[in-house]
């Protein structure tokens, strides 16, 4: 019987240990868990929030998930009515789904009671991160992090006299940050396969990721620039001739040309981290990435400081940039909604918003953005301001995940795998999206 | 694997050397990736993405430090204003112009892997031993069908079963809990455990327990006192196989866990540094994760064949 | 003390919990999946009405041309990886069977790749395959110069990339199995052949191969079943890309079920895949029986 005793003691000990573990988690009451993506701004927020803890005594716990898994993890969590997150800084595209399914709580009443005015925040961010249905006055989040896609470039390479001379001779203009997409392509071709300091370098690192949302966040930039609209502005969900119209096709075609001519080898599944890797390891002259990373790049020991400059999305027919950024929301399933609202109240104060900007976060508050001297506060502040003026966003519909995945597949098939023509890709996308909207009841079958 | 000589007569010395060369060649080549991972864990992030790849680099423990900590970047002025570093790892971090901000989730995840791995192994071995003994000794109605049914449960693709189990767990509140994953792994390992243990039990002669019963023990007592000790090796072997499966499992862990109960496999591929993937930290995590499995592989050499074929082949 | 529980009672007591757990966690979910496959349920809209759609999902799955692309990718993966593993594994087994000095050490060393977590392996091979800082291109270029190539970025090469990594991982498995087969061949057969002055080739073709054949078939079937289910390795390595060239059926299933949340549709796909695997497993067990009786 001795054996049985040992086994059962061990088992009891295991179960006790598990019980202790879950018990300990419940012991902390004045504590909030904030969920966001795991990236530089999140670290900045951790530092900033120490202020909140000092003021209110509420301990902050964090759950940061890397971007490629962030959407799936968090949406999974929300769908399971999980209690992991009290506060969630969710992506702008989730607003429709979160509002429709009741994952976030509506904040209008809270805002009114605490004199938080949406007019104090940049309009593009309010529309993009807070409202659902789009453009109405139903607020589901406080704009927390303004962001858009822009470019960084190797200022030190552009400044080399020999390169400048060669470029001028070839293209009859200065080697400088491009104003149009055609100019960008030329610069890309100029640097592609060039040997600099004994190493081969390439034109640009752009978004090509297949798995989550990477390539979509890339192609939309050129497609918007060429004049693409997702749907008929006068008739919602009427997409024929718009998502697969000539402008969209031209934009998609251009993106593929850019991919083929000017990217490093092996750059076929790249998103934010891979683009950063390419740029920081000195492989590329230009990098497409979210402005959120620019503070980190500016401080990088290899390529930061004077070696790096920034520029906004170049123009095509129009100037446009893909919107990034997030708003901060309170999760409906949390047991600590009141505490969470306290956090939002603290975060919305202009003084905290200023500290947020200083720490490396991208505040959306007008008091911060229109302060005199803002443009000079950092090397990327002008690009941030200019970009936010030209942002456009992807669908925020409740079914956005299906729309996104369809676009991921169609554009990756064409741009990276070279399948078919851009027209075929977009015709296929139109078919996919129509089916999604039919399933959703937005289009009558 | 105990063997008598089976080769078509004893091969010539030259034949043996040639064979040895081929095998050793293959082994060395196939081990290069593993060695490279080990080496990467001792590189700096910049060296890890140097191109062309450098074989010899300045060794550094920054990978391991990054694995276990979270850090934040500070400006040079702030860095200069800080008091001197208290520990060697804080020093390393400061060299990268960063400061320590706290522990990372890795040790949590590793601990979860241990808890869930051992927990589920314990359960599946206990249940498996009981069931295997019954199948081995008793006349269970429909034995062959039941045994096939048990085996077939292992054939189900995890993703297919994941949907209803996800819904089930959501309804019952087992999502992202240690208990939920332990139960699930127990069930998945049950088929392996039953089959392996039945094979081991079959090899234990019945005479011992029958003698014990003649001496007055009940069947149950005979089971405990006589059979189990003899089955100890088999039980240990089975336990290790179950542990390896639970240790390496990815699909269910990815889909059914989140902050609390997540194990290492879904976590390791997401170890990011400042913006980019932190390859040395990931390599360090992989190395640490691999070590127990390596140890077990060596321990289990003799029984591996049996384990991978569900006990069908015992050589 | 007396008799204690009867054998009959003990049998049920011992086997009961196992069967119950398996029913709860395997049969019940399977039936649930089956039911879901006939509906339009979506796991991210638990509040919406659930409609019965009969065989609608099944016909959509079978008529979707994208699914056939996935099947083709899966078939390519299965056939190439298993063939390669058989050839390499058999070769290694034949060599190991010669029992040169230190063979048992090296056979254990070869086993290591098989013991790793596939998801972690996939991530790491992504690092190795990177054309700039990964060692794969570096080593290949060392031996000859195909120029720049990207294993993971090229639509022609990436299906081979996943085959390569899978082969690296699982050749030891096949080797182990076939080695057992080789060692089970009774020596008197060879002695008899030697007396008849048979050539090496004849011995191989007439004795070795037929005797090892059951093991070969077993290896093929086990690998087939595992690779059909396999998801983590390829998901980490390529995400199914470039395009959808390496999007295996299992990855497609994960996307439909856990990213698009088309629960009804993905349940139908899951049932179809399960039927395929179940058929294979039936065949496996028949072979297992036959092999055991030898």
Sheet having the most strands of chain C: none
CATH class of chain C: Mainly Alpha
CATH topology-level name of one domain in chain B: MetI-like fold
Q: Strand fraction band of chain B? A: under 5%
Task: Categorize the overall geometry of chain C.
Answer: globular
How many strand segments of chain B?
2
Q: Kindly report the greatest chain-chain contact and the residue count on each side.
A: B-C, 108 and 118 residues
CATH 2nd-level architecture of one domain in chain B: Orthogonal Bundle
Helix content class of chain B: 55-70%
Strand content of chain C: under 5%
Q: Please name the CATH architecture of chain C.
A: Orthogonal Bundle
Number of helices of chain B: 16
Mean pLDDT of chain B: 83
**Strand line-up of the largest beta sheet of chain B:** 1-2
Tell me the overall shape of chain B: globular
Distance between the termini of chain C: 44 Å
For the secondary structure, the number of strands of chain C is 0
Largest sheet geometry of chain B: 2 strands, antiparallel
Oligomer: heterotrimer
Walk me through this protein's architecture:
The complex is a heterotrimer of chains A (445), B (315) and C (294). Chain A has helices spanning 2-27, 40-56, 67-79, 95-101, 108-113, 123-129, 155-158, 161-171, 181-191, 214-225, 246-262, 272-280, 294-298, 337-347, 350-359, 366-369, 374-377, 381-389, 400-415, 422-440; strands at residues 31-37, 59-65, 87-91, 142-145, 149-154, 194-196, 199-205, 284-290, 308-311, 321-322, 326-330, 391-392. By secondary structure, chain A is an alpha/beta fold. In chain A, β1 (31-37), α2 (40-56) and β2 (59-65) form a beta-alpha-beta unit. The radius of gyration of chain A is 24 Å and the shape is globular. The N and C termini of chain A lie far apart (70 Å). Chain B is mainly alpha-helical. Among the domains of chain B are: 61-104, no CATH class; 107-270, MetI-like (MetI-like fold). Chain B has helices at residues 13-40, 45-48, 62-68, 76-81, 88-95, 106-137, 143-152, 158-172, 178-203, 207-214, 219-230, 232-248, 251-256, 264-267, 279-299, 304-308, and strands spanning 69-73, 98-103. The radius of gyration of chain B is 25 Å and the shape is globular. Mean pLDDT of chain B is 83; it is low at 1-8. Chain C is 72% helix and 0% strand. Chain C is mainly alpha-helical and 294 residues long. Chain C is built from twelve helices and no strands. In chain C, 50% of the residues are buried. Chain C has one domain (65-292): MetI-like fold (Orthogonal Bundle).
């Amino acid at each position: 019987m001795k054996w049985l005793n040992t086994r059962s003691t061990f088992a009891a000990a295991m179960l006790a240990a598990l019980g202790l573990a879950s018990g300990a988690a419940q012991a902390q009451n004045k504590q909030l868990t904030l969920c966001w993506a795991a990236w530089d701004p999140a670290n900045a927020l951790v530092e900033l929030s120490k202020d909140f803890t000092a003021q209110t005594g509420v301990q902050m716990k964090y759950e940061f998930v890397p971007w490629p898994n962030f959407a799936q993890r968090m949406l999974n969590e929300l769908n399971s009515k999980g209690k992991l997150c009290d506060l969630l800084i969710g992506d702008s595209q989730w607003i429709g789904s979160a509002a429709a399914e009741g994952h976030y709580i509506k904040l209008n009443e809270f805002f009114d009671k605490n004199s938080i005015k949406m007019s104090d925040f940049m309009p593009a961010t309010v529309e993009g991160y807070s409202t659902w249905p789009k453009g109405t006055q139903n607020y589901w989040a406080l704009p927390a992090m303004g962001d858009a896609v822009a470019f960084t470039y190797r200022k030190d390479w552009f400044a080399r006299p020999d390169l400048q001379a060669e470029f001028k001779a070839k293209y009859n203009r200065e080697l400088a940050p491009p104003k149009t997409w055609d100019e960008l392509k030329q610069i890309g071709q100029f640097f592609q396969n060039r040997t600099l300091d004994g190493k081969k370098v390439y034109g640009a690192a752009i978004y090509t990721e297949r798995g989550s949302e990477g390539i979509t966040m890339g192609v939309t930039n050129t497609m918007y620039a060429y004049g693409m609209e997702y749907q008929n502005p006068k008739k919602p969900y009427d997409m024929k001739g718009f998502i697969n119209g000539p402008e969209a096709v031209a934009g998609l075609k251009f993106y593929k040309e850019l991919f083929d001519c000017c990217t490093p080898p092996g750059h076929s599944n790249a998103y934010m981290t891979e683009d950063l890797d390419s740029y920081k390891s000195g492989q590329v002259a230009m990098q497409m990435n979210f402005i959120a990373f620019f503070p980190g790049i500016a401080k990088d020991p290899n390529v930061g400081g004077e070696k790096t400059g920034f520029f906004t999305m170049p123009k095509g027919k129009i100037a446009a940039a893909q919107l990034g950024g997030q708003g901060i929301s309170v999760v409906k399933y949390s047991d600590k909604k009141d505490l969470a609202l306290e956090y939002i109240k603290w975060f919305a104060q202009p003084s905290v918003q200023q500290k947020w900007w200083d720490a490396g976060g991208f505040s959306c508050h007008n008091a911060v953005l229109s302060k005199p001297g803002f443009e000079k506060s950092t090397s990327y502040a002008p690009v941030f301001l200019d970009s936010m003026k030209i942002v456009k966003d992807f669908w925020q519909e409740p079914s956005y995940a299906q729309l996104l995945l369809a676009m991921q597949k169609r554009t990756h098939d064409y741009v990276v795998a070279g399948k078919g023509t851009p027209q075929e890709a977009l015709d296929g996308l139109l078919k996919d999206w129509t089916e999604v909207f039919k399933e959703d009841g937005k289009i009558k079958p | 694997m105990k063997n008598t000589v089976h080769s078509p007569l004893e091969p010539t010395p030259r034949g043996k050397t040639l064979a040895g060369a081929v095998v050793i060649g293959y082994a060395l080549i196939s081990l290069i990736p593993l060695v490279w991972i080990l080496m990467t864990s001792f590189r700096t992030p910049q060296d890890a993405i140097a191109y062309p790849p450098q074989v010899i680099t300045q060794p550094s423990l920054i990978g391991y430090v990054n694995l276990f900590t979270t850090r934040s970047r500070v400006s040079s002025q702030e860095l200069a204003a800080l008091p001197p570093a208290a520990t060697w790892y804080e020093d390393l971090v400061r060299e990268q112009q960063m400061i320590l901000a706290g522990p990372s989730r890795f040790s949590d995840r590793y601990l979860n892997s241990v808890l869930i791995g051992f927990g589920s192994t314990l359960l599946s071995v206990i249940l498996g031993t009981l069931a295997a003994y019954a199948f081995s000794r008793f006349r269970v109605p429909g034995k062959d069908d039941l045994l096939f049914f048990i085996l077939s449960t292992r054939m189900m693709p995890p993703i297919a079963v994941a949907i209803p189990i996800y819904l089930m767990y959501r309804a019952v509140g087992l999502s992202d809990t240690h208990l939920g994953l332990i139960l699930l792994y127990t069930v998945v390992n049950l088929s392996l455990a039953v089959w392996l243990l039945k094979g081991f039990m079959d090899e234990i002669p019945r005479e011992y327990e029958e003698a014990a019963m003649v001496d007055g023990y009940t069947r149950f007592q005979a089971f405990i006192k006589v059979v189990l000790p003899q089955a100890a090796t088999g039980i240990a072997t089975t336990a290790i196989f179950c542990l390896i499966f639970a240790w390496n499992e990815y699909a269910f862990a990815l889909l059914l866990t989140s902050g609390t109960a997540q194990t290492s496999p879904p976590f390791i591929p997401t170890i990011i540094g400042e913006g980019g993937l932190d390859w040395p930290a990931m390599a360090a995590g992989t190395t640490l994760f691999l070590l127990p499995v390596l140890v077990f592989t060596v321990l289990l050499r003799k029984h591996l064949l049996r384990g991978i074929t569900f006990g069908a082949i015992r050589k | 003390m007396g008799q204690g529980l009867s054998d009959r009672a003990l049998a049920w007591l011992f086997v009961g919990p196992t069967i119950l757990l398996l029913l709860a966690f395997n049969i019940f979910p399977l039936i649930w999946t089956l039911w879901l496959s006939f509906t339009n349920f979506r796991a991210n809209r638990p509040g919406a009405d659930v409609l019965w759609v009969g065989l609608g999902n099944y016909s959509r799955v079978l008529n979707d041309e994208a699914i056939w692309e996935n099947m083709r990718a899966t078939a390519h993966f299965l056939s190439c990886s298993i063939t390669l593993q058989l050839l390499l594994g058999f070769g290694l087994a034949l060599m190991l069977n010669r029992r040169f000095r230190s063979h048992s050490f090296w056979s254990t060393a070869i086993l290591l790749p098989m013991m790793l977590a596939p998801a972690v392996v996939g991530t790491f091979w992504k690092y190795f395959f990177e054309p700039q800082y990964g060692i794969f291109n570096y080593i290949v270029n060392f031996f000859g110069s195909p120029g720049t190539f990207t294993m993971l970025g090229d639509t022609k090469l990436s299906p081979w990339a996943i085959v390569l990594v899978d082969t690296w991982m699982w050749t030891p498995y096949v080797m182990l199995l076939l080695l057992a087969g080789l060692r089970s061949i009774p020596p008197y057969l060879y002695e008899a052949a030697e007396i008849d002055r048979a050539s090496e080739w004849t011995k191989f073709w007439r004795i070795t191969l037929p005797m090892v054949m059951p093991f070969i078939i077993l290896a093929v079937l086990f690998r087939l079943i595992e690779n059909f289910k396999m998801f983590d390795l390829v998901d980490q390595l390529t995400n199914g890309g470039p395009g959808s060239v390496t999007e295996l059926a299992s990855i497609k299933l994960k996307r439909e079920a856990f990213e698009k949340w088309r629960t009804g549709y993905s349940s139908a796909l899951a049932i179809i895949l399960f039927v395929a695997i179940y058929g294979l497993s039936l065949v496996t067990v028949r072979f297992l029986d036959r092999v055991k009786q030898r």
